Amino acid sequence: MTSFRAYIRAIWVGAAALLTIGAALISIPDIAVAQQADAPMEEENDRWYVRVTPFYWASNVSGALTLGHEEDRSIGGDWLVPVVKHELDSGWAGALAVGKGRFEFNMSAASTSVFDTGDFVRLSNPADTVEGDWVFDWKEIDGKISYEISPASISPTVRMYAGLRWMHWIQDQDVDGEVSNFDEVWIDPLIGARTSFPLGSGFLASAHADAAGFGLGSQLSWTVSGGFGYHVAGPLSLNAMYVYKQVSYDNGKEGDLRFEWEDGVAQGWFFGGTLQYPWGSQ
Predict the structure, then answer these.
(1) pTM for this model (two decimals)
(2) Which residues pair with 145 in a beta bridge?
(3) What is the rounded distance in angstroms from the CA atom of residue 95 to the CA atom of residue 108?
(4) Is residue 219 part of a domain?
(5) Which phi-psi region, left, alpha or beta, contains residue 257 (left: φ > 0; alpha: ψ -120 to 50)?
(6) Dihedrals phi, psi of 6, to nearest 5 degrees
(7) Does the first or last residue of the chain, that is N or C, have fewer Cβ atoms within 10 Å of its Cβ?
(8) Is the peptide bond preceding residue 156 cis, with omega within 30 degrees of 0?
């Protein structure tokens, strides 16, 4: 069951998203006058565009992982796994967007992992300790459709979106040549919003927030991010953003089949480059 703290965090995330969107919408009338002379023709914003962005993810993974029947302890077969709560690692991510006018389809993927070597304790004989290796993988794929709700040819832009998120968590362990694998796959419905606004001299700021799961896949998950972009030339832009993801998941099974992670977190900086064609379309 999702903890009360997780619901409180979700409420804060929702409030932050609404405040972000509200602030963006409130600022639109003031910005409109300044932009009116340079606003592009409506038909030029109605072209098809494709945007591709690969990312390097400097990630950090944490959480209270439970495998097997004992709370907050990772058990694989007859072995108690030495769970590391925090570990800095690296991963990758990427996004593909196709849009026309106010609509956009966006697909993104991300993957990171935590790995370590430690002493595994045999449950049937606690005096038996063997050094082993374990790896925990966090993988996800999002598919979203968004609609721009801000007025045409005016910044900041505000988009609302909805879609699905495919999640795959895997833990592999190798203890004295005995290899075990535990994995869970599920799909979360998600809703969210994002906003972006120009800062001048080619710089752009952006933020987004979403919530997912709602007991249909995970108990609850949410994501927030904020970052900056810089238009280098032509179709090329550079991006940096900080992303925080939190998931509470329980497969509802008992005994050795139990897989639960309360408030599992993956966070860190994303660094990437974007290619968009035709550039200049929104």
Answers:
(1) 0.75
(2) 105, 162
(3) 4
(4) yes
(5) alpha
(6) -65, -40
(7) N
(8) yes
What is the reported pLDDT for 67?
59
**CA atoms within 13 Å, Cβ hemisphere of 139:** 11
Question: Mean pLDDT per segment of 10 residues, for the chain of length 282 residues?
Answer: 45 45 37 33 66 92 62 60 58 94 95 79 78 85 95 81 95 78 91 94 95 94 96 95 92 76 85 84 42
The two three-digit tokens of residue 84, written as one number: 């590391």
Instruction: State the Cα–Cα distance between residues 282 and 278, nearest whole angstrom.
Output: 9
Q: What is the pLDDT of residue 115?
A: 75
Q: Please identify which residue in the block is written with the tokens 């030495």.
A: 82
Domain membership of residue 217 (yes or no) is yes
Query: Is residue 71 included in any domain, yes or no?
Result: no
Which residue's entry shows tokens 């992303």? 243
Q: How many domains does the structure of the chain reveal?
A: 1
- Give the Cα separation of 144 and 102 in Å (integer): 14
Question: Which domain CATH number covers 169?
Answer: 2.40.128.100
In this structure, the number of other CB atoms found within 10 A of the CB of residue 73 comes to: 15
Answer whether 160's CB lies under 8 Å from 208's CB. Answer: no
pLDDT of residue 46: 75
Q: At 83, which amino acid appears? A: V
Q: How far is CA 111 from the centre of its chain?
A: 10
- Which residue is associated with the tokens 């591709």? 52
Q: Which of 146, 137, 130 is nearest to 95 (CA)?
A: 146
**Within 13 Å and on the Cβ side, how many CA atoms surround 208?**
23
Q: Which domain holds residue 260?
A: 4-63+90-113+136-277
Residue 210 falls within a domain, yes or no? Answer: yes
Bridge partners for 58 per DSSP: 90, 269
Neighbours of 187 (CB within 10 A): 15
